[in-house]
TrEMBL record, chain A:
Domain Trs120/TRAPPC9 fourth Ig-like per the UniProt entry, residue ranges: 1032-1120
The gene coding this protein: TRAPPC9
Keyword Cell inner membrane set for record: no
Occurrences of domain Trs120/TRAPPC9 third Ig-like (ranges): 895-1009
Protein name: Trafficking protein particle complex 9
Source species, domain of life: Eukaryota
Region (Disordered): 266-286, 825-845
Residue intervals of the Trs120/TRAPPC9 N-terminal domain: 186-259
TrEMBL record, chain B:
InterPro entries: Longin-like_dom_sf, Sedlin, TRAPPC2L
Keyword Transport among UniProt keywords: yes
KW Zinc (keyword) present: no
Cell location: Cytoplasm, Perinuclear region
Source organism of the structure: Esox lucius
Gene Ontology, cellular component aspect: perinuclear region of cytoplasm
UniProt record, GO biological process: endoplasmic reticulum to Golgi vesicle-mediated transport
Alphabetically ordered keywords of this record: ER-Golgi transport, Transport
Protein name per its UniProtKB record: Trafficking protein particle complex subunit 2-like protein
Family: Belongs to the TRAPP small subunits family. Sedlin subfamily.
High-level lineage: Eukaryota, Metazoa, Chordata, Craniata, Vertebrata
Amino acid sequence: MSVPDYMQCAEDHQTVLVVVQPVGIVPEDQFFRIYKRIASVAQVSIRDSQRNLYIRYRHHYLPENNDWGDFQTHRKVVGLICVTTCGSGKEWPQTSERFHGQKEVFGATLYDSRLLVFGLQGEIAEQQRTDVAFYPSYDDCPDVEKKVEDFVESIFIVLESKRLDRATDKSGDKIPLLCVPFEKKDFVGLDTDSRHYKKRCQGRMRKHVGDLCLQAGMLQDALVHYHMAVELLRSVNDFLWLGAALEGLCSASVIFHYPGGTAGKAAGRNPSAAQGQAADAGKRHRPGAQEVLIDPGALTTNGISADTSSEIGRAKNCLSPEDIIEKYKEAISYYGKYKNAGVIELEACVKAVRVLAIQKRAMEASEFLQNAVYINLGQLSEEEKIQRYSILSELYYLIGFHRKSAFFKRVAAMQCVAPTIPEPGWRACYKLLLETLPGYSLSLDPKDFSKGAHRGWAAVQMRLLHELVYASRRMGNPGLSVRHLSFLLQTMLDFLSDQEKKEVTQSLENYTSKCPGGMEVITLPDGLRLHPVPFTKLPIVRSVKLLDLPVSLRPHKQKGLMENSMSTKSPFIYSPIIMHNRGEERNKKIDFQWVQGDVCEVQLMVYNPMPFELRVENMGLLTSGVEFESLPAALSLPAESGLYPVTLVGVPRTAGNITVNGYHTSVFGVTSDCLLDSLTSVRTSGCLVEVIPSLPRLQLSTSLPRSAHPLQPSKEELSSSVSVQLFNGETQQLTITLENIGSEDLETLEITSKISNTKERLFGEFLSWRPGGGCLTPASEARPVWSPSLSTSSQTGLLWRREPAPGPDDDGISVTGLPISSPLRQVLKPRAETRPPGSESSKTDYNHVKMLEAVMTFKYSGGAGKVEGYYRDLTLGLHVDVEPSVFFTRVSTLPATSTRQCHLLLDVFNSTEHELTVSAQNNQDLVLHASECQRMAIQVDKFDFDTLPQPDQETVRYTSLKLLEEERLHAQASMINSTLGITWDIPSVRRKGEASVEGVLNQLVLDHLQLAPLQWDVMVNGKPCDCDIIADCKVGDAVPLEVKLTNRSKNTVGPFALTVVPFQDYQNGVQNYDLQDAVTFIGSNTFYIDTVNPSEESLCLGALLFLYSGDFYLNIKFQDDSVGKEPGAGQGKELPLSWFGLPSIHIRAQEAPMEAGA
Amino acid sequence: MAVCIAVIAKENYPLYIRSVPTQNELKFHYTVHTSLDVVEEKISAVGKAMADQRELYLGLLYPTEDYKVYGYVTNSKMFRKLHNSFTDVMCNPFYNPGDTIQSKAFDGMVSVMMVQAS
């Protein structure tokens, strides 16, 4: 006996063994169908004895094992059922022959046999035979079970008779010596008459009877017999049989204690070894079966006693659970003395372990198993080895030693593919390896590893995964290999050495070249589902941040529609609790919008944990909510890189709320979908963002180069900015071209500008607008400062360029404000005022470069986004560095000969490094070298500032007095400026500009420049007379003198008294006022002018008579009478002297020609 | 002397494992791993009865052909040394309970206890 039956358990001792075998040609599936039906009859209740007979069926049994039938009767084949197919009557004799042949094999031990014939009909089938049953086909055999039951009953009759036969002949008859096969030769020539021998015979027979009793369902009898056998055999040191008797005792006790059986569910795990047996394991024992017990006192009789006294005997004979184990140990130690009883010992160990498992005594069970491991059964075939390791694994599992179980299972798996096996069973190996996973606390679902750091027996687990990879590859399933290898890489990354990382990735790449890894769930034939392994660690993503659109493309909500979006759920204006609610962060809506059709960006901070360069291909975003076109990126991360920013882009194709769920990658040929929900280590500030309908997109380009440095006050983000360097007073043209590069039509465009740094006071306009293109209208700038070439047709043609919008027709554009298609031309006129502090010493200040900044905003909208109330801003920052050009360090006036004019004296300072030409209107050019200061005089007509528009009442009310004053000064200055028209020109650098006197003017100068409100006109001889005009008159003629006063002031003036004083100027500094002889007045030399109301005139008339020829001058002296006489009538204060600037009159008196007089 | 010393965490994963014949480390991993079954069994069995006065000596856990695996022993000097060293590791404020032991002092102690590989 060399092949152990690992599935044996203690209660098998009470079964009878029936072999079911096919005879002739029987289809395997049909045979097993019949076999199953036969095997379902595992327990038969004997009609009139209340006893049960248990049957163990085998379809394969070694006759060699049958030889041990005397030793333990459950090993003896007592029944044979043959199944055969018989097509016709002709075949019948042959079939019958075979059946008999089969009977011969087990002949010695068989109690009875049956033949089931399928397919035979007719005459032969009609005959009534007890040992043969005929069925027309495998499908038409309704009473197979019945037949088997009958057969079992017949076996029982034989068994019962044998039992009675053996049990009763305890008289002096010679008892035969039962022995096991290997003993037979030992007993040759032994003295059969010795007491020792007799006792041995008795003991063995007693044990045998015990077996029979147990089989026949008489548990109590069996116990008694076993006890007696133990006593007898112990006395003669017949250890092998003593062991068997002890084991019998244990078996009977186990059956008594554990009616549920000890095989447990584990029996079902080995389908090949115990088909049939497993299915019926549960049915085998009916509760209360052992109640049918016989009183030990009634042993010899065949009666059945229902006497309650039997209870006492039962308790006495039956072993306690602890004793069972003791006896098993003893029995096994006896078996161990015999080398040939290895199988018996092994099986006993297995049985004991099963019992211990039920008793939950794992430690002792493990000792039994440990012993079983060392039992040497000689040369085992590879298959037997696998079976042995598998069963050890199962038994360890049974007692809760999962690691040990896994260890043996793995050994079994390795045995399947041992190098000595010609055809390695990789499939079986793989299957067994999968079964070891729980023992190594390894789950193949990567989700179980996502929580925190991996903790486990990494070395062992890694080895197992490597073996799985290898086995699946050898199985010819590269998909599985890829999956396992991915899993290994993902979960064991922290435990792999750099070298291993390299090796694993290399082999992964090898596998994926044949079979790319994906995200689908692999389902194995046995139902195990292998979840996809996303490479969340290759690369490791630390943070995910959705990026706002660039400033120029950010959509804004129209103010009027703001209320809808502003509404907050909470009634509180501020709550700190909401701020700290981190849990909802991922689902929080980000407070910016993306625009349909525009490229949106998400920034990931990634990290490569590998010691080599990591190539990530096809990295893109996973989104939901909105149709999103992801534009995958490929990146290459250097070895063990630090945090590395990666920007993933995509275009939302529809509007709505979009959620970024994760990203997908392709690394080493494995594509992974990494969801952010399962990545706890990823920081994110929210993944939900609103996508608004599409808007047009404008691109701005300017004629000036872009500035590298942003504007100083960076409170606003600008889409672009330009910078330019200008001299003070210089004008620069800037052409801005707007192009619609989006897919939507532009419907509205609004332009505003703002000067951002207001610390410095500005004089004059900094920015002025002039829309360019076809409808070019002159801007507020009066003088055309632009070179004509800028507005030539070629330039205009360029500006007219218009991007074809790939949408519907452009005709439907409604224009507000400015025509869309016309590019705009902007005029820049910086006049940063560097107000001179008045002293020449602070000249260095003039070299200081001033900065001017302005922001222009283009607000535009169109398309579906406009309907929703969104618009976009395009901002252009202007940065101007203003360098000083020319300054007027001092201004003064000199009266001109005419009272209506004066001379303006300007000290001009050239603060540039170039030679500079200054020119004023109607004046000669003045050439100034660098840092040179020269005076220039300009004769100007006096100004009538009253013609300047007065600020309206509203403005006056709300503006401070000082501001009003400044405004007035500014208006006056610009008037002077425009009249003077002072320009400068630097020929060397071809720059020119204007110079302004504003800021250097003081009140005194202004007063001098102002036209007096009282206008005096003097007429001599009816001709107006002014400074340089010489009035001619004749000696002796009365010369009429007319003085006219026009009051242009707002108040009533006068009354005044004017005295005309004639004098002669000798041109040598001497003035002769003593002219009574030369000039005489006709009438008074004093005029009196009454009060003159505003805008009225008053005229005084007088006459002079020149007595001699000569040049005379008239000085009109003036007295203001109003103050003294009527204080209330005038202004209440003295009128300024300059108001009374009467011209001095030059009269040349000549002798009248005689002819004329005659 | 010992050929392999392992400190196992409560959740049955190794905090520290080191063996002298380095070429066949995996074998020791397997040996220690499987003997955990016994430790688990012993602890759970004793725990039911008398959780307080549990004897820390688990004795022989598992004999293999070549080696014998012993559980935690406090009444031998060897294990006391290990225990003290382990206590030191645990007292380190920078040690995060549950992490793999990387202490040099502990490593040194283990080296002393090991068989000198010839």
